[in-house]
Amino acid sequence: MTGARTLFDKLWDAHVILTREDGESLLWVDRHFVHEGSHHAFRTLDQRAATVAEPALTFGVADHYVPTRGRPVIADPEIAGMVARLSDNAARHGFRLFGLDDPSQGIVHVVGPEQGLTLPGLLIVCGDSHTSTHGAFGAYAFGIGASEVAHVLMTQTLWQRKPKRMRITVDGHLGAHVGAKDLALHVIAAIGADGARGHAVEYQGAAIRALSMEGRLTLCNMSIEAGARCAMVAPDETTFAYLRGRPFAPAGALFDRAVAAWRGLAGDPDAVFDRDIRLDAAAVAPTVTWGTSPEEALPVTATAPSPEAGDPARAATVAAALDYMGLTPGMRLDAIAVDRVFIGSCTNGRLDDLRAAAAVLKGRRAVVPGLVAPGSLAVKRAAEAEGLDRIFIEAGLTWADPGCSMCVGMNGDIVPAGERCASTTNRNFRGRQGPGSRTHLMSPAMVAAAAVTGRLTDVRDLTEPDREA
Amino acid sequence: MQPFTRLEARACPLGLANVDTDQLIPARFMSRPRTAGYGTFLLHDLRFGPDGAPVPGFVLDDPRRAGARILVARRNFGTGSSREAAVYALVDYGIACVIAPSFGDIFASNAVKNGLLPATVTEDDAESLLAAIEAEPETPVCVDLTAQTIAAGDRAIAFAIDPVRRLQLLNGWDDIDLTLRHAAEIAAFARTRRTEAPWIVPGHGG
Ligand code: SF4
Fold it and tell me: What is its pathway (chain A) (predicted)?
């Protein structure tokens, strides 16, 4: 390879086994995460009487369907069967499973990083679109479908065509009580739910460097909602400090050797991107979604759009979204009353997220019911050690066990039809949180503010009431 | 996998943008085994009300669309989760081709692996095709993958598809068989990777 290379180019080059004449490359996979929803892929293996090629690089997590209350009992026999099938497959094929009974169980995109399984420079795949999360470490991480999961299980490789490269530079500093989630929603609203389609996105700039690992994970997690193939942040001291001492991360001299290699992953200064976008962090406000696509996001201080006001080609989509969400054009977003709140998911179920929500809820009462599902048992223990569980419980919210829970409603934690939920999750699709559910996406601090007032609320009104509006 | 070359069938207009995979198949149906077929779950919550009764006038259930094998939609079709079950629902229902101005990346990849053609057309062509099949529901639409053309009535439009995906569909190729032919190269790469970056193999952990 010659010429200046971006971070993505370097990650790509390091994993190409061969490139066909037609431009498709066979890539080596360093890390493969599977979950109980991967059952279709394991069935393909069975049909071919095949085995897992690299069990040492394969890790299983029970997260999508697991109950968040009343464990270890799984009341639903269909779900119990899926979780048992994952255990059987792990035992049979010899890979490590973070099952329901494991003290490190949690959501795959929370467990991978916190266990030190997610490292810079790795190619990481999982049968889940939010695998983009792991790119926060400077890894090439992306979601795949069930056929591809079967392919990786059997060969530890994948065919890919090289995506285009896109840089999103965020200059300046995020304001008080404005975080990675607000930035993510701001970016998606700016470029659209397909704005990064076909691209590998690299985030750069002062505002990105200032983000904690948790913040970077949130941002890369949400990048799939802009259609990105994957997203990444070049590793730096923040990354290395996070990884040191993690259970599965390299230790001792091997860690130092790895860090030396990881420092070389930064893109070359004159490397060229196919697309370049620049944003000012100071322009990002606490942001909420009003519609049924993550691109339908606005500052909480704004009003609901009118179908006639914008692009005529989009008028029908806007009208349908407003109708589904039960909103009228021009109404203030901070006048929207919510029925419940949810704090959790692979987007915002980490310790930092729970701290941000608890800081708002401390000494206050929620006026609507709500569920807090930590991203993992490790997060849960750490939160309890700090007393965050007490704050949530005293505020009137339910403190649960980890899993995808109300992000996708597969385990029965759903928002009832017609009800409106302020949620820290990543998708406000129709019915995502249960048939007929209405979802407003926002940061953990903003969800906490909504819990306290019972309506979408600018968290700054609670935390700095004397601020100039 | 069955090769896809040419298809002539009725088409359904689904005039929505950002039809996500949660719409194509709601999550609660995905724990079922595929054997029973996923066709009845296709667009389930748009097609059936909360009480399970069909939504009157929903396009899939319009008798004039009976036997439709083509779906026409607006931009960013199949956005969202990586669930291949979204493709299973389409295929099991009988859909063999979706025509739209753009597709979610993972959806398009999943589609091809199941013999479903994602045909990319311009926004203008999508609008004109939607109008044509709205006006004349029973007119068959002809999709020719060899020529990369779509014909509806007297309209003829071109569509785009990645050339590799086109070949896979035309030939009905299975990736895994192709890959296994490279077993020696894969094994050699794996050895080098483990030597150069030994930390890719995790320790035993906590
Ligand atoms: S928390 Fe939600 S988005 Fe994340 S992996 Fe689970 S279902 Fe997917």
Answer: Amino-acid biosynthesis; L-leucine biosynthesis; L-leucine from 3-methyl-2-oxobutanoate: step 2/4
Residue in B with minimal Cα distance to A227: B104
Q: Is the CB of A346 under 6 A from ligand 1?
A: yes
Whether pLDDT at A1 is above 60: no
Contact status of A454 with chain B (Cβ, < 8 Å): no
Calculate how close chain A gets to B205, using CA atoms only, in Å.
4
> What 3-state DSSP class applies to A60?
strand
CA nearest to A195 within chain B = B76
- Are the beta carbons of A48 and B174 closer than 8 angstroms? no
- CATH class assigned to A288-458: alpha beta
Domain boundaries, chain B: 6-162, 174-206
Residue A464 vs residue A202, higher pLDDT: A202
- Name the residue ranges covered by the structural domains of chain A: 7-275, 288-458
> Superfamily assignment of A7-275 in CATH?
Aconitase, domain 3 (3.30.499.10)
pLDDT at residue B206, as a whole number: 43
Phi first, then psi, for residue A351 (nearest 5°) are -55, -45
Here the ipTM equals: 0.94
| Structural fold of domain B6-162 | Aconitase; domain 4 (3.20.19)
Interface membership of A329 toward B (CB under 8 Å): no
pTM of the shown model: 0.95
Mark out the alpha helices in A38-171 (DSSP H runs): 39-47, 77-93, 108-114, 146-155
- Give the distance (Å) from ligand 1 centre to CA of residue A259: 30
My answer on whether omega of the bond before A72 falls inside 30° of 0, hence cis, is yes
pLDDT digit string, tens, across residues A131-174: 999 999 999 999 999 999 999 999 999 999 999 999 999 999 99
